[in-house]
Write a structure and sequence with these properties.
The chain is mainly alpha-helical and 378 residues long. It has one domain (2-83, 90-184, 192-377). 69% of the residues lie in helices and 7% in strands. It has a three-stranded antiparallel β-sheet with strand order 1-5-4. A two-stranded antiparallel ribbon has the order 2-3. Strand 4 and strand 5 form a beta hairpin. Helix 7 runs parallel beside helix 15. The longest helix is centred in the C-terminal third of the chain and has 36 residues, at 282-317. It starts with a helix and ends with a helix.
């Protein structure tokens, strides 16, 4: 029961769907990670509790004790493969010809590293965005709660508090930006300290887009991760030439041979007897199919992630796309505010987004009246 509960907690950790993502992000950070973990558990269970290898022993060793020992020995001490019409080579020649097969024990660890590579970009995005002016995850989660509230007074109260929280963060950013602008205007008339000089040189802060930059960075990590994994898996399963892969659907199975051989030294009276076994690695049949499907799945993810990164980059950086989403108080919202409204609209619905937008509009008008008044007095 403890193992089942531990597995449930682990699976829930990787499958927890944060609200600051889209479908392509969830395919990377959640779906692919869960599938890889399930593959790790399946292959690990087959190695520990199943029969990953079956060997044919000589007649004088064909006993239960020797059979079990020989199969365990060959599985842990590696095997070697032979090509067609090839005789049994010596141990030194096997090393020179690269015939040894010793990687199948490491497949669960390899898949675990792959799962972490898919999970880390989303985890980094969630951790880093919490250090910004406001926590977008908490805002979207609260907006989802508003969608299911029907009591008028309670909904208005929570909506007002949520709008105040978002507006306070946006106002703080605008005050910081205004302070930096004044800092730059007076830089020629006075000398600033090193800290003040650095404070005036952050373009992301001026554009009010730190969270947007972090989100784009996580999507870029998805693209890079797919490229690296395609290369590694291609080498692992024998796709030596990627351009030919699209036209030639066959690949060599030398990386996952089903028939292998194993040499076992057995101490006898006065001499060392070497026995050669022929083995069937049924686990390689499973490994071959897993990596074959995984390679094409990551190809699909690469196309989706690259397209999604370009679309998100255009939406965040082109003024026309931002104005198409919301045409007023764009300077007040900034890049992070627009990105937050997209997340709220995707997860909480257009009605909650409209209510929050109206509330922010009132905060925007009041805030800018104060700014314009002080600018006129000065």
């Amino acid at each position: 029961m403890f193992e089942i509960s531990l597995f449930g907690k682990l699976l829930s950790t990787f499958s927890h769907s944060y609200h600051l993502n889209n479908t392509v992000d969830r395919l990377h950070w959640n779906i692919t990670t869960i599938v890889l973990i399930l593959c790790v558990l399946f292959i690990g269970a087959e190695q520990q509790f199943g029969q990953p290898i079956q060997c044919m022993l000589p007649t004088h060793l064909d006993q239960n004790s020797w059979t079990d020992y020989g199969q365990y020995y060959c599985f842990t001490q590696n095997t070697y493969r032979l090509t067609d019409n090839q005789t049994l080579p010596s141990a030194s020649n096997r090393a020179k010809l690269h015939l040894n097969v010793n990687y199948y024990q490491w497949v669960p660890f390899f898949l675990t590293i792959q799962a972490l590579c898919f999970y880390i970009p989303g985890w980094l995005w969630m951790m880093l965005q919490r250090g910004c002016i406001f926590d977008m995850e908490a805002v979207v989660r609260e907006a989802i709660c508003l969608r299911t509230m029907f009591k008028f007074e309670g909904r208005i109260t929570r909506l007002t508090n949520l709008v105040k929280y978002i507006a306070s963060g946006l106002k703080m950013k605008m005050k910081m930006d205004r302070g930096r602008t004044e800092c730059q205007m007076s830089r020629s008339a006075s000398k600033f300290s090193t800290l003040q000089a650095k404070w005036c040189k952050h373009p992301l802060d001026k554009k009010n887009g730190i969270s947007t930059a972090l989100y784009l960075f996580s999507k870029l990590l998805n693209v890079i991760n797919n490229i690296i994994q395609l290369y590694i898996i291609g080498r692992f399963i024998g796709f030596n030439n990627f351009p030919l892969t699209l036209t030639k659907m066959q690949f060599t199975s030398s990386y996952f041979p089903l028939i292998t051989f194993c040499d076992m030294e057995r101490q006898t009276l006065g001499k060392v007897e070497i026995n050669t076994f022929q083995c069937v690695l049924m686990l390689n049949f499973i490994n071959e199919k897993i990596f074959f499907m995984l390679w094409y799945w990551i190809c699909l993810l690469f196309v989706l992630s690259l397209t999604d990164f370009i679309i998100t980059l255009v939406q965040c950086l082109r003024p026309q796309c931002r104005e198409a989403l919301i045409k007023f108080y764009l300077q007040f919202l900034g890049l992070d505010g627009v990105l937050l409204l997209r997340f709220i609209n995707n997860h909480a619905g257009i009605k909650v987004t409209r209510d929050i937008t109206v509330g922010l509009w009132h905060c925007f008008r009041g805030f800018y009246q104060v700014i314009f008044y002080h600018s006129f007095i000065l």
